[in-house]
Amino acid sequence: xxxxxxxxxxxxxxxxxxxxxxxxxxxxxxxxxxxxxxxxxxxxxxxxxxxxxxxxxxxxxxxxxxxxxxxxxxxxxxxxxxxxxxxxxxxxxxxxxxxxxxxxxxxxxxxxxxxx
Amino acid sequence: xxxxxxxxxxxxxxxxxxxxxxxxxxxxxxxxxxxxxxxxxxxxxxxxxxxxxxxxxxxxxxxxxxxxxxxxxxxxxxxxxxxxxxxxxxxxxxxxxxxxxxxxxxxxxxxxxxxx
Lengths: 116, 116
Known about the structure:
Radius of gyration of chain B: 13 Å
Number of strands of chain A: 12
Helix content of chain B: under 10%
Oligomer: heterodimer
Mean pLDDT of chain A: 94
Low-confidence stretches of chain A: none
């Protein structure tokens, strides 16, 4: 079974600063998919960024980037130039495969607060 | 595109009654839908995987007879909480997987259930 660990329950960052959210996972699969989701106070889940395990290049989406270390089973999210709208819960998630195997395993989440 | 709706957004019911929650993919066909439960400030817990035209697959510990799932068409899945009790009060989220857009699951906005 897959597990996803987010050990930091809360973090705080000053607006315009950079923050890194940690995530580790455990799996015996060789190919899989990793995601970071944002859940703002509205509770709508929003995809932030995704990474395919077979790709060595780290994914980037504007101010969001990941540091994917496959051997270490680590998948951290870096948010640059933090904005007040980044305040939310962030979940790291693992997906083993496709179709009916595409269920997501989530970490416990981290509450990020961006201070003005 | 890739919008998922849930109805109702919130519902209050009396103990012992049944409540139906609908999850619809509005602009795509969802071969697989997932139902999650989330407590405040906690992670999403997968309850079941729903495939169109077949029986749902429930996660360990989830009562099949209490949480009835029907995936009658490629755009609609329903979750019925039968004989609801106060401990069933929670936030229920569905997601839909099309198999089209890079293994991405699209999440509904969630339904807040309160059982009195």
